[in-house]
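Repro case for the chain-ordering regression, as requested:
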Amino acid sequence: MLKRILLPTIILVLVYGFWVSPNFKTISAGVAIFLFGMLALEEGFRAFTGGTLEKMLRRTTSSTAKSLLFGIVSTTVMQSSSLVSVIAISFLSAGLITLAAGIGIIFGANLGTTTGAWLIAGFGLKVNIAAYAMPMLVVGVILIFQSSKALKGIGYILAGLGFLFLGIHYMKDGFEAFKDTINLAEYAVGGYPGVLLFTTIGILATVVMQSSHATLVLTITALAAGQITYENALALAIGANVGTTITAILGAMSANENGKRLAGAHLIFNGVTGAIAIIFIYQLVALVNGLSSAIGIADDDYTLKLAVFHSVFNLLGIVVMLPLLNFLVTFLEKYIPEKKPEVDQPLYLSGASAEFPGTAVEAVRMETQRVYEAALRIIIDALGMKKAQVLSDADLDQVVAAQGQIHKFDIDAMYERHIKGIYSAIVAFISETAFSRKEESSAQLQWLREANTHLVEAIKDTEQLQENLIHYVGSENEKMREVYNRIRSGIAFIIRDLEETRGSGGGMMDVLKLDSLKLWVESEQNQLNLVITELVAKSAITPSMGSSLVNDSVFARDIEINLIRAAQVLFAASYENVVQLAQDVMLDKSDVNRVEHQAAASN
Amino acid sequence: MKRNKLLKTLAEFFDKEEQKKQKHHDELEKLLHELKEKEAKLEVKLREEKNEQKRKRLDEELKIVKAQHAKGIKTLQSLEI
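-- result from build under test --
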């Protein structure tokens, strides 16, 4: 219920926000573009999985020291820890690196980003790679249109980076108004309350401006102008460090669980580092003063001392957090669990059941029964019917005629969820069962495997049939509607008969009686062909409709025959030695065709 | 002595195969007998049935049973060779 109203509520709030504030619109567009950039980046990196990039990343992040170094170097070069964090998240989401390596990169990025403070404080310059966003986008999109997988991948990466920068640009633009209103001098407070207050301001300013560099520039300017105290400036730097995690958190929104874990690691690292820095701020100040004197920084050169502080407290964070890396990985894996798709798994195929031929056959039979039941459910749903209707005494022609239309049913998803897991396990179990090649039960296992294959084929055929079924059951053309409803009731009739046979105990004679159903299916298909030819000849339907019908009648026939063959093996397998006997007398397609010709000749 | 033991094991092994084959043969024979009985019942039913549609279904079923019986006979003969 909550899920159902959440999305419309979010959209309504957004629409209201767009209407009230143009700035909000710009910021939201920025977030959207940024997230789109993340998706493109992941898509790009995925193109290189299993190849060079994977090898290179594995080599450069194979140990904690290496991943730390990777983070430091890449952040120093790119001058953006946020960008390195989101790239690490996309690496992790694409399965290119491990979570531990990702955390190492994030730790390194935190130290690498302090070079920015040195650049700002020492030279007053900053590498502005955002200026490359537009060319990246243009070149990226051109490359996406190329047929080569590698070029396409590079294209997605470039376009992704371009969109990331463009998104950040829009977010910054949107927050421009807020930036002008921030006057640090108004909040100058001393002592711990001041530290906490300025840390909070630093966090907010960085979240708002989407750049810890921008906060640092603001801090250094305010410090140089004497608007804030040195301690307040340090607190702002701490806040900027914590606030910068917002970009990674935004980036993780579109990432998988691993990406979210990494964003969590980023937040924890920066939070813990910030907390340590706040608690020991006076000790750190003393340490920075000592270090600054040792490397020849003047006592009143607060801007360079701020850079020293930035490096020292991030280094301290790494020293504290690095020994806890494995604990952090376990913690994140526990609290951000991987969402496992709900897939039906085998219940009876254990190692113990493989030990004896009898138990192995019984286990496979029980699993095949589950596949059979799931297959019937899927086919009935795809026909737009209810199981109760199919199994009732109601006239099936009337039941299908009463429905004006049928809705799309995701057969593929249902197959993946209810059948694939069990079917794969059955195939693997039979292949692994050593005696399957020498014992007599091997034949029974092989027949059961074939029965599963028939069921899977029946589902695939239903998928092929579904599109036209939906289209023509709701069609204006009455004749098309009638023939497709006849196909539906035909399949339902077979299912009803099979279930009745199963309910009656499915003894040997019942199993063999199902051969008459095969004859019914073949003659029904021949009659359908005659009907289709007549309809086309009378121009009641177009030749194109006729060809669709011919194809679909074949799909319907295959569904029915596959279901009957699977049911015969499954029902016979309930009795010892019956499968072999059933195979001795059961009719195959050519036998049924021969009987059908005899029947036609005698009529 | 060793050779005798080996020959005895071999004989038992082939015996087992033979026993299995015989069991299969007997069961199939029994099934064919059941099919013959069913065939006879269907023939009686078909003679007595007046409804044309039901007669058609019975006739089809009879033909199927006859075809199954014929197929079973072939398998039985191959087991006897």
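Ordering looks correct now. The radius of gyration of chain A is 34 Å.
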